[in-house]
């Protein structure tokens, strides 16, 4: 008897020397934060992306929380955030007392609609947070034109977009800061992890303090002060060097990982485009001036009923697909801020219809062919 097929939506796999590096971290005798592997990871981001400072964090959520502290968000401040994003993008700012001002997304890229940005800016606006959905760059030229003219800061949630570019420039290098994620579901992972990328040099020293429980411990270790003490608010945002060791094993394989993901993405695209056109299914849009990160492959089905039916149909065949973000303005928290049905029609329309196909570093071409074949036989 054949074993039943199981094709996971996501599955963590070893891609390089992760286990060897974990053993090395133990031998180093440095398991707490900011050991040799943390420094190696930070150096990859600083050298490859050209950011002023990279700081590994315990999660992307925590990198976003650090951003909110660094921007000095105060109760009553407003932060403009796409309605179609993960909860952490907004929660980090709400934790500091900000009022979230949502912005709707483009129906093709699902990135924030820069044409709707300017009317949302008020004297209370502190920041705009572009999220590069699926690792496809937002329209940064238009966004920065508005924010520079209005004196509003930009910070990027780049959880999906590591090593992607917009007009040849890396995502994560446009805003004053950017947040990365190394959660199990992202292109590069250590289970739970993140990074704060800092482009504005004026923010570097305070970022180090906030990440080290509000102390100037980093300066102490560099010999710049002879003892460290409590100098600001902060928390413990630095991951164990064990996790950094695992992550470094993955980052070292970045060309191979991204190459595999690119091949998977292009195989889905090529295998599904005729079917999609015939059935009224919308495949992802990647503008020509962007080079995407190949974070995920999603499709927009004609309606909610078809989407739910497809998820079940695939599951019966051992194939696990998932939907994605629910409109933030319709959540309990969104409603508490006074939002309601109809406020962000594009997000409401796409959220119900979106499905994400199995996509991970361990997905084989054979398994992917089975996913495509199942889809081509699905009766829409
Ligand atoms: C995954 C994700 C996060 C949160 O990342 P964690 O590392 O799990 O905290 C934040 N924003 C977006 C857009 C994400 O996809």
Provide a quick synopsis of the model.
The chain is α/β, with parallel strands linked by helices and 380 residues long. The chain has helices at residues 18-28, 36-49, 60-70, 87-94, 140-150, 204-211, 217-221, 241-251, 254-279, 304-316, 332-336, 345-351, 365-376, and strands at 53-57, 78-82, 99-103, 125-128, 153-157, 165-166, 169-170, 177-181, 194-198, 290-291, 298-300, 354-356. It has a seven-stranded mixed sheet, with helices on both faces. Strands 7-6-10 form a three-stranded antiparallel sheet, with no helix packed on it.
Task: Give me the count of strands.
Answer: 12
List each distinct ligand once. pyridoxal-5'-phosphate
Structural class: alpha/beta
**N- to C-terminal separation?**
32 Å
Query: What order do the SSEs take from the amino end to the carboxyl end, as H and E?
Result: HHEHEHEEHEEEEEHHHHEEHHHEH
SS summary, helix count: 13
CATH class of the largest domain, named Alpha Beta
Instruction: Indicate the proportion of strand residues.
Output: 5-15%
| Count of structural domains | 2
What would you call the shape? globular
CATH architecture of the largest domain: 3-Layer(aba) Sandwich
Mean pLDDT: 97
Provide the CATH topology of the largest domain.
Aspartate Aminotransferase, domain 2
Low-confidence stretches: none
- Residues in helix, %: 25-40%
- In spatial order, strands of the major sheet run 1-9-8-5-4-2-3
Radius of gyration: 21 Å
Structural commentary:
Helix 1 (18-28) runs antiparallel to helix 8 (241-251), helix 3 packs parallel to helix 4 (87-94) and helix 9 runs parallel beside helix 13 (365-376). The protein has a seven-stranded mixed sheet, sandwiched between helices. The chain has a three-stranded antiparallel sheet with strand order 7-6-10, with no helix packed on it. A two-stranded antiparallel sheet has the order 11-12. It is built from 13 helices and twelve strands. By secondary structure, it is α/β, with parallel strands linked by helices. Helices cover 37% and strands 12% of the residues. It folds into two domains: 18-251, 3-Layer(aba) Sandwich (Aspartate Aminotransferase, domain 2), CATH 3.40.640.10; 254-376, Alpha-Beta Complex (Aspartate Aminotransferase, domain 1). It has helices at 18-28, 36-49, 60-70, 87-94, 140-150, 204-211, 217-221, 241-251, 254-279, 304-316, 332-336, 345-351, 365-376; strands at residues 53-57, 78-82, 99-103, 125-128, 153-157, 165-166, 169-170, 177-181, 194-198, 290-291, 298-300, 354-356. Bound molecules: pyridoxal-5'-phosphate. Pyridoxal-5'-phosphate binds at residues 59-61, 85-86, 88-89, 131, 157, 159-160, 181, 183, 194. Pyridoxal-5'-phosphate binds next to helix 3 and helix 4.
């Amino acid at each position: 008897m054949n074993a039943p097929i199981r094709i996971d939506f996501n599955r963590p796999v070893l891609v390089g020397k992760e286990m060897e590096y974990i053993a090395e971290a133990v031998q180093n005798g440095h398991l707490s934060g900011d050991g040799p592997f943390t420094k190696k990871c930070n150096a990859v981001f600083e050298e490859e992306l050209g950011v002023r400072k990279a700081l590994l964090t315990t999660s992307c959520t925590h990198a976003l929380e650090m951003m909110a502290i660094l921007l000095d968000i105060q109760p009553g401040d407003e932060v403009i955030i796409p309605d179609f994003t993960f909860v952490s993008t907004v929660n980090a700012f709400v934790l500091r007392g900000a009022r979230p001002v949502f912005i709707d997304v483009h129906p093709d890229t699902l990135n924030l609609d820069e044409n709707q940005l300017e009317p949302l800016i008020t004297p209370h606006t502190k920041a705009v947070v572009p999220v590069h959905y699926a690792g496809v760059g937002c329209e940064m030229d238009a966004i920065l034109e508005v924010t520079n003219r209005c004196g509003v800061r930009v910070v990027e949630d780049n959880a999906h977009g590591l090593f992607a570019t917009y007009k040849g420039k890396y995502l994560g290098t446009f805003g004053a800061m950017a947040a990365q994620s190394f959660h199990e579901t992202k292109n590069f992972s250590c289970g739970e992890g993140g990074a704060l990328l800092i482009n504005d040099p004026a923010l570097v020293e305070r970022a180090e303090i906030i990440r080290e429980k509000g102390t100037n411990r980093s300066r102490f270790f560099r010999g710049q002060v002879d003892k460290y003490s409590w100098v600001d608010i902060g928390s413990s945002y630095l991951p164990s060097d064990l996790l950094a060791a695992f992550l470094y094993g993955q980052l070292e394989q970045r060309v191979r990982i991204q190459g595999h993901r690119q091949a998977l993405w292009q195989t889905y695209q090529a295998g599904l485009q005729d079917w999609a056109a015939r059935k009224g299914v919308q495949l992802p849009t990647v503008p020509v001036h962007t080079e995407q990160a190949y974070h995920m492959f999603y499709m927009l089905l004609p309606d909610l009923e078809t989407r739910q039916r497809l998820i079940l149909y695939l599951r019966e065949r051992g194939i696990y697909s998932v939907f994605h973000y629910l409109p933030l303005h319709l959540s309990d928290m969104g409603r508490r801020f006074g939002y309601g049905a109809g406020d962000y029609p594009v997000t409401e329309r796409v959220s119900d219809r979106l499905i994400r196909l199995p996509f991970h570093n361990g997905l084989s071409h054979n398994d992917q062919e089975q996913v495509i074949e199942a889809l081509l036989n699905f009766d829409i």
